[in-house]
Amino acid sequence: MEYRDGRRQALRLILAGMLLSGSHATLTAAEEKPVMHAPTVKPFGTMPDGRDAHLYVLETPGGWRATVTDYGAILTSMTVPLGKGGPVDVVLGFDSLEGYLAGHPYFGASCGRCSNRIAGGRFNLGGKQFQLATNNGEHHLHGGDVGFDKKLWKAEPKLTDAGPAVTFRLVSPDGDEGYPGELAVETTYTLTPAGELVIDMQATSDAATVCNMVHHSYWNMAGQASGSIQGQQLTVNADRYLPVDEGSIPTGELAAVEGTAFDFRPERKPAATLAAAIDALPASADGANPGGVDHNLCIRGWQPDGTMRAIAVLRDPESGRTLEIESNQPGVQVYTGNYLDGSLTGKAGAVYEKHAGLCLETQCFPDAIHHVGEKGWPAVILEPGQTYHHRMVHRFGSGND
């Protein structure tokens, strides 16, 4: 498979070295295991209240490199050494804290307590009604005005058996952004020697609450400064999607993707391009709807048992570079960067125009709190004694064997 390219290349180099040396000796465990180091820590800027933010650098042999910050538990860069054109950073973002503080569309962020949209910013739970911030028109989005993406988390950098990692922690108090219950949260980033970026999110609450955290990177497999993702190909293991109303709230229907712009099924030949989907969903005449994809796709075969399933593959035909995502979540929000408009200047002076990146947000379904108990809708309520666990594995390949 494509994501194993890095492993295959490394094995070929090892075998070539053994043949040149004339040695047929078995590799020792020490020789097989790459040398890894704990993350390094750098200053990243100062918060308005005087607290310092930090950048954590995770590196593994072969040129793999990820940087994350304790502000928003944000992934600020992911360098992939594979593919035509050499090492390239494949996530949109900023060079310093100031860019994130100035306001941005959740670049690389850990969003919560409940990500995506809640209709009207309100819900009933345990016989009580709760009113949340309405920060997306009349609706609640990605945790509210000051969601997890705008918090300074506590960080624990470490070297694990799987590779360098950073665990970010925070406590969201009862009533935070209107939510019930005190929620203790962790987000851990791990970079493996194979170049896998693993993200684990966990949470527990002392009262029934709503919890749906997402990772919100904007991916561009040609590189973060390369321009539009329209020429890239996407496959998603989903037979159904959630149609939405004018406010991007699901109507409640689980509709078939066949014959629609949302048909990214892997069995389609040739693979669907993002341009085709974007062109099929044009902007409205008044500009209120920017067009493009911003919908939840329902993962085929999902069950609430924590099993990891193949979610999506994003491929840049020009470089051959690919991203494959696995997760234990029932849905994925496919968002084609429709609201990017060239007003943001990112890393190395890159200007992010419309469709400069693609979000693949594995998640529970949007507005699921208003569909509790309905057929096909997963649960989004977290009870005391339960642990919310959201796991994502990002694998990168070059498309060359």
List the helices and strands and how they pair.
Blueprint: H1 5-21, H2 29-32, E1 40-46, E2 52-60, E3 64-69, E4 74-80, E5 88-89, H3 97-101, E6 109-111, E7 117-118, E8 122-125, E9 128-131, E10 140-141, E11 154-160, E12 163-172, E13 183-191, E14 197-205, E15 209-210, E16 214-216, E17 218-219, E18 233-236, E19 238-241, E20 255-256, H4 274-280, E21 294-299, E22 309-315, E23 322-327, E24 331-335, E25 358-363, E26 381-382, E27 388-397
Antiparallel strand pairs: 1-2, 2-3, 3-4, 4-5, 6-16, 7-10, 8-9, 11-12, 12-13, 13-14, 14-27, 15-26, 17-25, 18-22, 19-20, 19-21, 21-24, 22-23, 23-27, 24-25
What does this 3D model show about the protein?
It is a single chain. The chain has about 400 residues and is mainly beta. The chain is about 10% helix and about 35% strand. It contains 4 helices and 27 strands. It has helices at about 5-20, 30, 95-100, 275-280; strands at about 40-45, 50-60, 65-70, 75-80, 90, 110, 115-120, 120-125, 130, 140, 155-160, 165-170, 185-190, 195-205, 210, 215, 220, 235, 240, 255, 295-300, 310-315, 320-325, 330-335, 360-365, 380, 390-395. The strands form 7 sheets. Strands 11-12-13-14-27-23-22-18 form an 8-stranded antiparallel beta sheet, with no helix packed on it. The protein has a 6-stranded antiparallel beta sheet with strand order 17-25-24-21-19-20, with no helix packed on it. It has a 5-stranded antiparallel beta sheet with strand order 1-2-3-4-5, with no helix packed on it. About 45% of the residues are buried.
